[in-house]
Amino acid sequence: MKKWITFDLDGTLMQNPFDAWIFPEVETLLSEELKYSCDAKKRLFHAHQQMLRNEQIVAAYDWDDLVRQLIQELGLTREIDIEALVVTHSVEPKVYLLDDTVIPALRRLKEEGYDLAAVTNGYYKYQYPVMKALGLTEWLDVIVTPERTGYAKPNIRMLDSLLSEGELVAHVGDRLDHDVTIANQLGVVSVLIHRDLPEELLGLSPKQRADHIGLGPVLEGLAARENPQLAGMRLPQSYQPNYVIRDLEELFHCLDIKKR
Ligand SMILES: [Mg+2]
Q1: Does domain 2-14+94-253 have CATH number 3.30.70.560?
Q2: Which of 20, 21, 121, 162 has the most CB atoms in a 10 Å sphere around its CB?
Q3: 14 CA to middle of ligand 1, Å?
Q4: Domain map of the chain by residue range?
Q5: pLDDT in tens, 198-245
Q6: 32 C-alpha vs ligand 1 centroid, how far in Å?
Q7: CA of 138 to the centre of ligand 1 (A)
Q8: 33-49, pLDDT tens digit by residue?
């Protein structure tokens, strides 16, 4: 019987190359051909957000298809291979781990007997090259992705195959709508990682932070960034994390870790 701990990737463990490298390159390629700036990054992100809002979550992360649609909208005929661009740009320091505690924490969890998996809404073909470059594939036993399972976070069906092999102890991630929500809906420990906590929360334990009034504005800010339509709205109960950590080292204050 496995004891899984699952991790989101982007914003939780690693920085992918899309924002800083791939979108700007797409922009350059298209603008050169058009002879004017087409604001590709903004348009792609807008299309992505729109699909998330329409609950087309699996499709929202198909960047090859989103770029193909943009090219068509612009009246161009060229092709851009996003998967190939990911491979090209998956080198440090273009991609990087989000802090120095990531690998030591994963190693320690493995030593403690946990089975670790990435649960990401990014497609395998875009995530694996980044994970490989950063040494994450060595520690994460399984990579769960939407195009392989047919489901995306926060749909709990995404974790069916992991759960058939064991129990899920906790899920760690940086998004309320996808990560905290999927954990809460499964009734497992939800751990929000947020590296920019306000001063008043820093001295508290991960559990105390989750219960502290000062977390309210942090959650509201995150929710509004994930979905601008949630700005000023009362947040769903499923957005409330059980623990709030600022790095992976603090995960050990959330789990009752015993050697098996
Ligand atoms: Mg994330």
Answers
A1: no
A2: 121
A3: 9
A4: 2-14+94-253, 18-89
A5: 999 999 999 999 999 999 999 999 999 999 889 999 999 999 999 999
A6: 32
A7: 20
A8: 999 999 999 999 999 99
